[in-house]
Amino acid sequence: MPLSNPPRCGTLHAMRSLYVHIPYCRSKCRYCGFNSVPAGDDTVLESYTRALVAEIRGAGAGKYDSFSDTVYFGGGTPSLLSLHQLGGIMAALRGLAPLPAGAELSIECNPETLDAEKLAGLRQLGFDRLSLGVQSFDDDLLALMGRPHDAARAAESFSLARAAGFANVGIDLIFALPGQTLDGFRRDLERAIALGPEHLSLYALTYEKNSEFGTLKTEGKLIPANEDLETDMYLAAIEALAAAGYQHYEVSNFARQGFRSRHNLNYWDCGEYLGFGAGAHSHVAGKRRANDPDPAAYVRKIDAKQDPRTFEETLTRDQQLFEAVFLGLRMTGGIDVAAFAARWGGPPWSRSPREWQRLEREGLVVREPGRVRLSQRGLLLADGVLARLAPDPSFHNEQLSMNNEQ
């Protein structure tokens, strides 16, 4: 059965979002399983920037009428690049198509890479939204994670961002860390709230197989927080942030009114986006593609004028439906059933009605007039709930990977 209404950005002439991946950090954090590597010397960053600019220019100047909403620099640590390097990338992006007034331009930053000069330069380049990788305000936990900053530097970077004119600053925190207590996490929340960010992202620690923490856990040398404590921390965060005026709008994300991440909202709404850089994903006209995740291999391919992509597929109807369900249910407001049916030719439960009924009986999914959403318990168990709705486990795992990256 054909889609009655395919993804709404089904033309190559309008693109909602751009994603730029900078895979380099000063050092690899012990918990990190993302596509990031230590930068080494400056020539590595310069070579990567040159390749990135070439890829962007090769996408076709004048091919797109506009990028109507967002640009997002993720990593890695994008703020590790010099202002000159970042400026070259931004110039290449503007060469594809004009960035309209009011576009959201976000960049992920680590506190140790920021000073007043760097922040002023980011503002001049057009960035208007910062995502600060604070992770914790506990110096012992920061040292355990291998973070290169301390709590004082994190707070200072936030103050410097405000002084530079950033009115939209987000803070990332990790919880359920080894040895972290509920009271300790509450203190992290209190420190973050006291700074007054517009956005907070909270992530329970996961033990990735390709991370140092993952190896230590497998060897029995690192004991994870128990599930009850992790649940208590998550519920404490929901309560504290609601009391402080933050809206819980996605499983891991909270924002003040008017400051939800527009880039991520486009992604969660199955919008189209172009990704540039090593390991970056794109979603265009019903096709999913990804670049070579190895930064050195990516640079070699670009320098040799080869296609950097290592993966491309045309999404099946089942995959598109699951993606819409997967992303829609991550939003705390859930899915508008009528809008979903108009767009996809049927309700969210059309592919697997019996599994939906089981989830509802278990209290994990709630049906309300015109909407369906995860219950609070469903949000706590979101990954497992969504895995039960996947057309196959590999597609669910791919969605989790892209959700973390983008």
Portion in beta strands: 15-25%
Shape, per Cα inertia axes = globular
Whole-number total of structural domains: 2
Report the uncertain regions. Answer: 1-13
Q: What's the architecture of the largest domain, going by CATH?
A: Alpha-Beta Horseshoe
Number of helices: 16
CATH overall fold name of the largest domain: pyruvate-formate lyase- activating enzyme
- CA radius of gyration is 21 Å
The count of β-strands is: 17
The side-by-side strand order for the widest beta sheet comes to 9-10-8-7-6-5-4-1-11
Name of the level-1 CATH class of the largest domain: Alpha Beta
End-to-end C-alpha gap: 30 Å
Q: Structural class per helix/strand content? A: alpha/beta
Q: Summarize model confidence as the mean pLDDT.
A: 91
CATH superfamily of the largest domain: tm_1862 like domain
The description of the largest β-sheet is: 9 strands, mixed
Classify the helix fraction into a percent range. 40-55%
